[in-house]
Design a protein that fits this description.
By secondary structure, the chain is of the alpha/beta class. The chain has nine helices and six strands. The chain binds magnesium ion.
Length: about 240
Amino acid sequence: MKYDVLLFDADDTLLDFKKSERITFDIVLNKHGLIGEPVQLDQLIESYKSINSLLWSQEAQGLVTKDFLKIERFKQFLETNNLFADPALLSEDYLETLPSQVFLTEGAFELVSGLHGKIPIVIITNGVGNVQYKRFSQSGLNPFIEMMIISEECGFSKPDKRIFDYTFNRLREKLKKNPSESKFLMIGDKLETDILGAQNCEIDSCWYNPDKIINSTTIAPTFEIQSLSELLNYL
Ligand SMILES: [Mg+2]
């Protein structure tokens, strides 16, 4: 193996977050009587997603806190779409429903279970602690994972170098090997968080880009894959 440890992003890399989000959204909006026809669902999801991703990027820059974001995204969503409900209640239902709707991305199980015992697998995720733990315990991937690092618990989010330093320190205890002697690979779907984060701490990175998005940024992954199984060619 070319690498000593693999660092995986969770959402839309190993877990199909887009699918979880869509199904959760459908359940919660229906529960609150906010949805009429199926056509409407896609529009509402798009509106929520743009609000949500803007708030997450503000969070990554340290402009808003996660606690603020959790309710604010629903407040803005309701206002934008002229809907009436309690954003705090909507947020609560969303966070309660989301962990029960878990789907893997294509090839995730085969990849992670196949690598188990050959190389340690660590998850580094920007997300809400209890939600991510519940989701992983439902995913079937837990037995193959060495460690899970969640930004909420560590206090820093990708691409901040400090979440990687925190991970390396935790690994030092676990692997009984000096992280500076180890070769790491970060695998993730987001250039601005996963790949830039790897760049910030000078480790190799693999951009998982199943939708073949054109990279219009200056962020340069070490290599790029379109399917998870392709990763095996680089290890
Ligand atoms: Mg991701």
